[in-house]
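Exam revision sheet. Question 4 asks you to relate a sequence to its structure. Input first:
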Amino acid sequence: MNMQEMMEEAIKAEKKERKKRKTFMLKHKDEFIVIANGLIPVQKQMVRIIYDGSEALDISLAGNHKVFKTMWKALRDLGYNCNDKPKDKRFSSWSGYWTKNDTDLTIWVSFSSTVCTRKQVGTKMVEQAVYETVCE
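Answer key, structure tokens:
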């Protein structure tokens, strides 16, 4: 295959992919609006919402623990279920997939905390070399 044929194949593949993405967007546009309306309580903390081109809606938000709980409740109220709950009570970041039984739409949520502080949680002894200046 020569260079021109490879370029033509790349263009053909991109057109096919673009058509697939457009079809998916048109199929789920009403659900996208439902999700946006359901997330109004956390709209000020929203960093971005994008369609990633691989059949998932990516949602990024940042805030405190209350924002996370509000987002969680909003998606649950819309009928979505998460594949992976946070393991810790407090965390600096979390991400997971959300799905709903009556749709093939997947939501990827990424949360980052904006209220992290540095706290001492203990001490440890460290063996460290000691040097002196010695002159002859």
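Marking note for examiners. The beta strands are 46-51, 56-63, 81-82, 93-99, 106-113.
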